[in-house]
Amino acid sequence: MKEIIMIIRPQNLEDVKEIIESINCGGMTISTVMGCGSQKGNVKGFNEIKGFKTTINLLPKIKVEVVVDDKDVETLIMSVREHLVTDHVGDGKIFVRNIEQAVRIRTGERGVKAL
Ligand SMILES: Nc1ncnc2c1ncn2[C@@H]1O[C@H](COP(=O)(O)OP(=O)(O)OP(=O)(O)O)[C@@H](O)[C@H]1O
Ligand SMILES: [Mg+2]
Q1: ∠37-29-109 over CA atoms, to 5°?
Q2: Residue 72 maps to which CATH number?
Q3: CA-based Rg of the chain, rounded to a whole angstrom?
Q4: pLDDT tens, N- to C-terminus, the chain (115 residues)
Q5: Cα dist. 18→28, 64, 74, 76, 86 in Å?
Q6: pLDDT of residue 48
Q7: Cβ atoms within 10 A of the Cβ of 101, count?
Q8: What residue spans of the chain are helical by DSSP H?
Q9: Name one GO molecular function term (predicted).
Q10: Is any atom of ligand 1 closer than 6 Å to the C-beta of 36?
Q11: Given CA atoms 35, 41, 43, 45 in this order, what sign does their dihedral have?
Q12: Is the CB of 37 under 6 A from ligand 1?
């Protein structure tokens, strides 16, 4: 199992929910977060701020966490990229980490069956 962590633009949440639903995984966790990437939250671009001291600016983002079967990881990544990619910075980022175990508390099911 892998956890896919996606930091996306708030307006893309509905698209990502539909993509997750389409791969039929068990659930998801959504949070509102603040963040910045390589532009440090500067929306105007590097050149306009060159030579000036810049401060980090945190922008509102949505964090989507979903634990999936290994076989669904690439499908999810490719589909999210396909739907969310634009030619602008800030499209978001996807992180993947290993998940050791999952347990459905109600039934005691474990592993992929618990997702
Ligand atoms: N290295 C990182 N560690 C933790 N969170 C990150 C990291 N990079 C990006 N994020 C999160 O992802 C959000 C979106 O990042 P963003 O898409 O701007 O990445 P980027 O590397 O700047 O790419 P781009 O050049 O396309 O903008 C950030 O606001 C932040 O919340
Ligand atoms: Mg960026």
Answers
A1: 135
A2: 3.30.70.120
A3: 17
A4: 999 999 999 999 999 999 999 998 889 999 999 999 998 877 665 545 555 556 788 999 999 999 999 999 999 999 999 999 998 999 999 999 999 999 999 999 999 999 9
A5: 11, 12, 16, 11, 19
A6: 53
A7: 8
A8: 13-22, 73-84
A9: ATP binding
A10: yes
A11: negative
A12: yes
Distance 59 CA to ligand 2 centre (A): 10
Name residue, tokens 């603040």: 34
Domain total in the chain: 1
Please name the amino acid found at residue 2: K
Name the 3-class secondary structure at 61: strand
Sign of CA dihedral 72, 101, 65, 18: positive
What is the Å distance from ligand 2's center to 61 Cα?
11
The pLDDT value recorded for residue 41 is 77
